[in-house]
Design a protein that fits this description.
Elements (H helix, E strand, L loop, with lengths): L46 E4 L5 H11 L3 E6 L13 E2 L2 E2 H6 L3 E5 L5 H12 L3 E4 L5 H4 L4 H7 L4 E6 L14 H7 L20 H24 L4 E5 L1 H7 L3 H8 L17 E4 L5 E4 L4 H10 L14 H6 L1 H13 L3 H10 L4 E3 L3 H6 L1 H6 L2 E6 L3 E6 L23 H8 L3 H10 L3
Parallel strand pairs: 1-2, 1-6, 2-5, 6-7, 7-8
Antiparallel strand pairs: 3-4, 9-10, 10-11, 12-13
Helix pairs in contact: 1-7, 7-8
Length: 433
Amino acid sequence: MSTPRTGPPEPAAPEPTAPVPAAPPAPGPTPPEPGVPGPPAPLAGLRVLDLATLFAGPIAATMLGDFGAEVVKVEHPAKPDPSRGHGPAKNGVGLWWKLLGRNKRTITLDLSRPGGRATLLRLAATADVVVENFRPGTLEKWDLGWPELSAVNPRLVLARVTGFGQYGPYAHRPGFGTLAEAMSGFAAITGEPDAPPTLPPFGLADSIAGLATAYAVMTALAARERTGAGQVVDMAIIEPILTVLGPQPTWYDQLGYVQPRTGNRTENNAPRNTYRTSDGTWVAVSTSAQSVAERVMRLVGRPELIEEAWFTTGAGRAAHCEVLDEAVGGWIARHTRTEVLAAFEKADAAIAPVQDIRDVMADPQYRALGTLTTVEDPELGRLRMQNVLFRLSATPGAIRWAGRPHGADTEAVLTELGLTARELAALRAEGAL
């Protein structure tokens, strides 16, 4: 189990690829003593059935589990969640699953078989939330759609996470986050102006949709407090990423403006770019505020640029990004990263090192926040991973365990549900477990 997320310091990590400035420990609430019970987690008593695979739906369930919900992960007996095999593994154990499956009890159930269907309905009758990401019509094919689920539990919230939503011309297509990154406009604005559109090398759209689904579930649960009734959440992965891209639809609607690819630059302000230091590392500079832009130009020895008429607006500076990049980049290229970061901090100007995961693991700010934590795992021992997403001062979340083996809790969960040994044997004989 990890330390509850209230701001504890973390133990030392491997050295970063380049030095980072030391920082004093940040003040924060004192974590509870080991073995001393803390306050109940904010979602304690909430029961979630995670029927989803890969990323968006399971991420939503993970977010709920991190703050105390009892999450039961339901996987096919012969076809476990593919995330168990994604990315690097250690001793045959998938490491991505250890993160995605944390705080979840794991059971196997074939929902297409009569016994599996009946058992799922019994589980749903005891649950608050079901998260699924089958193609539209799949649950209905198994007679497990909203009419059947709500009949056994009118207070249930059913979160349906799909690539394109439950209706529309694309609803029945296979949908993945990559398609959302392409369709939403994200790829079109990402990359250099004269280079192809760029896709992210990780599950960006899925992750955004997962966070949005957790928010949608909590919204539906809040409504249930007033109405007493559950409802369906229809989450299309193509939508949340479009939301976080900002006012592009409004720009196009009102001005016919289509945002182009601008690389690391932006049309809203300058200087804004990544710059290489004399020791071969990179830093990122942002000047979204006029006062910060002025401080940067004084720091790099070009205060005369502040007097230019175009310098007074972000758009004006962006139109002269070449001269600003030359000034800032030229100064940074003559100094080491340590010197650059120290000078910018002294000048109260915005800068950050471009870090890889080695730097992140040793970064003093992440360490002060407790962003990375250590979890004891019976399969792999001590694991480092991201902590729960945010800190609550009175009722913190925590990682109680990392992702468990496929079906590890099947017998325990179903016995708690009231199934007898004979019923379990019958389900196994049927192939439903």
